[in-house]
Amino acid sequence: MKLDRYILLLILLILWQVLCSLEIIPTNLLPSPFHIILGLKDLLIIGMPPGHFLPNHILYSLYRVTLGFLAAALLGIPLGLLLGWSPRLRRITNPLVELVRPIPPLAWIPIAILWFGIGMKSAAFIIFLGAFFPILLNTVSGVLTIDPIYFEVAQTLNAKRKDIFFKVLVPGAVPSIFVGLRIGVGIGWMTLVAAEFTGVRTGYGLGYMIMTARDIQRPDEILAGMLVIGLIGYLINGGLRLCEKKIVRWRN
Amino acid sequence: MAKLKMDKTNIIDFSGVTFGFPEQATLFTNLSLSIQKGAFYLIKGPSGAGKTTFLRLINRLEEPVSGIIRFKGKPLDAYPPPQLRHSLLLIQQTPTVVDGSVEENLLLPFSFKNNSHLKRPRQEKIERLLAEIHLQDVRMNDHAMTLSVGQIQRLCLVRGLLLSPEILLLDEPTSALDRESAFAVTTLLERLNVESGLTVLAVTHKKQDRGNVTYRGLEVHHGHVEECP
Amino acid sequence: MLTICFSILFSLQMQDMVRGEEKPIRIGYLQSDIHQLACWVAMEKGFYRKNGVDAKVAGIFRAGPEEMSAFAAGALDMGYVGEAPATTAVANRVAKATVLAQVNTEGSAIMVKKGSPIKKPADLAGKTVAIPGHSTVQDFLLQKALYKFKVDPKMVNTIVLKPPEMIGALKTGQIDGFIAWEPYPAKAQTMGVGEVLLTSNQIWKNHPCCVLVSDDGFRHLHPKNVEGLVKAHVQATDFIHEFPDEAVKIGMKYTGMDEETVRTAMKNVNYTYELSIDGETEYVDFLSRLKYIDVPHAETFVNRFIDPKVLEKVVGK
Questions:
Q1: Burial code of A139-168, b = ≥16 C-beta within 10 A, e = fewer?
Q2: pLDDT bucket at B6, cuts 50 / 70 / 90
Q3: Residue C267 to residues C137, C174, C187, C199: CA-CA distances in angstroms?
Q4: If DSSP codes are grouped into helix, strand and coil, which group holds residue C295?
């Protein structure tokens, strides 16, 4: 039932802890679950670097990701709808998109720092790049997979182009748009840590926290930080799913 | 081949219309024919002969390669598009509703800017139409996609009728209906044809004989469209 | 998870087996850190070979903590690294290493933009200063400077940048100052970008900086090689004093910087192999105060961390 979802995880955790306690796994390389919990405690109480506490790291990181993600959504969704709508625009922009898309967001870091300096803007830019393409492409795909008969029915009912765009195209693309948003925010969150490696001006950020934990040689805090990052990513995804359910319900 | 009659009682005239899809065999070659106003045409023909395309040429979803199609004496392209499609109303073969309530679907066309000059139908008119085709149990805030295919098909018909078209172009309007519902639909169409003078062109096999309906037959095959008994 | 466990175990076994055979000794040093000139001299002049040691460079690191991570992973046998990151790694039980000889004292500086309004340490309040990484000697020195000159550390915004990026960041105003190992302060000067606010001498006179560390496992298995390496280091350090011009040329080769920069840099560095127990004790005290490490008994730690016996044998005291 509900319990056997967690049984595997529990068994692995216990095995891990035992192997560490018996020193079969070297704890300087892989701390035990117990040490990681203690590391989490230190992140909350002492901070990493000392004096910089975990909740603030989380807030700054969330802020950066939100900025980058919103920019990606505000640009990607309308652009995706337009590209889905117009085959001509698609043809014109396709080479550019296919050229830029494979460039990993992290490769943009040196240029981003050159353009925006070290700080919130360059980090948000990197995250924007990570989130933008999934949002764009899923929006386009959402439009393209609308059964053409919907457009035709609207036409036969005497719809203007604007009506077709807003009453058939946009609603039809919504499920795909949400898929794109979830993928986009996931990639954006993952890119965050590396983006924060490049220099965090404020001294706060989960990626920066992990780098500092590495500098100060606290692998227990590194792993605790990774755990926090994973957990928050999970919650963000869940949050978006909830949003999607609410919007779908409201429209019905 | 029927002779061309430049007559005001013709609501649709085809003059020398040729049409074929790109890279496919020509469907119609130099077709000339007239549709009489107020008649009820049943369109027959083998599958793939172009019955649906014939309808789509009339409401300008397809353009002839050559020749002219006239509506009430004027070529189709002389009409500004907003004036055309609610008068020449096509109801497709595949019943299609949008993701919304029954009411939203029925009133969908009235939310289009091109139809802003049309008056919104009154609630009783809608309910009357729905009752005539046995949809009286369907509620306005039911979700359209939960209806059966047959109900959706009839819903699409009502949606089109609410625009008060002059010509109704129907592609297999009873394909998803049982005998009883099909009978109700045909009865409604015949009533509108007789009482309102609605010209009907229907791709269908079913008909009833109700004395005062002017039934005509059109046979579409091998590039010709001919009148037949 | 199981796969991770087994891969770690397996690779550790492999490494043990590898060390058992005669393979080149793996040495690490910091990128363009003129403090570690002795390492480059030893390589260029063949001192390792002459002392019967087959040594190769197994890693060039951008900062001390990275090098200590390599020790933790068993990827290095000996290394030239800052005393602060080495202390942190060993005190936090991430790496098992021992200091065998000093490499240099002093040789860092806090730089500010040329013509900057920052004239004294107190002016750093409210400013952004770049460090090469947390728990580096430079991080340590900056914190010590703030403490010494009574500046509230919370008022200074530290940002981690790698030294090659620091000069550019200073130039474009991204940062108000940086602290780095020579030759970067010298380069900032010769480029006309920066000027010295404080030298490390003014922060902590004669402070030990880089050390020569050895991985404990390696040390126990190959005492002869260890001795040879320390001897090569001593010879190289003497060489720098005896033949400064040639040392400058080697410094230029390994840092890629011009002669003026290298000469200016080397003036700020004191090359010596003499160990300092007091210096290490100070490191342990201050790092504990910063909460980077938590050492129950400082004296015991220091005596285990520094092993002067090899050096004494080599130098013949």
A1: bbbbbeebeeebbbbbbbbbbbeebbbebb
A2: very low
A3: 19, 28, 13, 12
A4: coil
Q: Residue A189: which residues within 8 A CB-CB, separation 6 or more?
A: A65, A229, A232, A233, A236
Residue C4's pLDDT is 74
CB within 8 Å: C159 and A203: yes
Question: How do residues C116-157 score in pLDDT, each as one tens digit?
Answer: 899 999 999 999 999 998 999 999 999 999 999 999 998 999
Q: Is the pLDDT of residue B2 over 70?
A: no
CB atoms within 10 A of CB C190: 19
Question: Are residues B163 and A158, on separate chains, in Cβ contact within 8 Å?
Answer: yes
**A205: its two tokens:** 């950020």
SS in 3 state form for C4-19?
HHHHHHHHHHHHHHHH
Contacts of C93 (CB under 8 A, 6+ apart): A27, A28
Please name each of the domains of chain A with its CATH number. 55-251 (1.10.3720.10)
- Candidate from A156, A159, A160 with C-beta closest to B89: A156
Residue B2 covered by a domain: no
Q: Which long-range contacts (CB under 8 A, 24 or more apart) does C260-266 make?
A: C260/C190, C261/C183, C261/C186, C261/C187, C261/C189, C261/C190, C262/C34, C262/C183, C262/C186, C264/C183, C264/C186, C264/C189, C264/C190, C265/C34, C265/C107, C265/C182, C265/C183, C265/C185, C265/C186, C265/C187, C266/C34, C266/C37, C266/C182
The shortest C-alpha distance from A158 to chain B (Å) reads 5
User: To the nearest whole angstrom, how far is the Cα of A145 from the nearest Cα of chain C?
Assistant: 40
Which tokens is C296 given? Answer: 């129950």
Domain tally, chain B:
1
Whether residue C93 and residue A212 make contact (CB cut-off 8 A), yes or no, is no
Identify which of C206, C84, C93 has the alpha carbon closest to the alpha carbon of residue C143: C84
Name, of A193-202, B15-24, C227-236, the range with top average pLDDT: C227-236
Strand partners, C130: C159, C178
Show the domain range for B51: 10-228
In order of start, what are the domains of chain C with their CATH numbers? 23-106+207-315 (3.40.190.10), 108-203 (3.40.190.10)
Neighbours of chain C (3+ CB pairs under 8 A): A
Tokens of B11: 């609501």
The answer to whether C135 contacts A217, with C-beta atoms less than 8 Å apart, is yes
CATH number at residue B167: 3.40.50.300
Please identify which residue in the block is written with the tokens 């790109």: B22
Here the ipTM equals 0.83
Residue in A153, A159, A252 nearest the CB of B143: A252
* A-to-B residue pairs, Cβ atoms closer than 8 angstroms: 66
The percent of residues above 90 in pLDDT, for chain B, comes to: 8
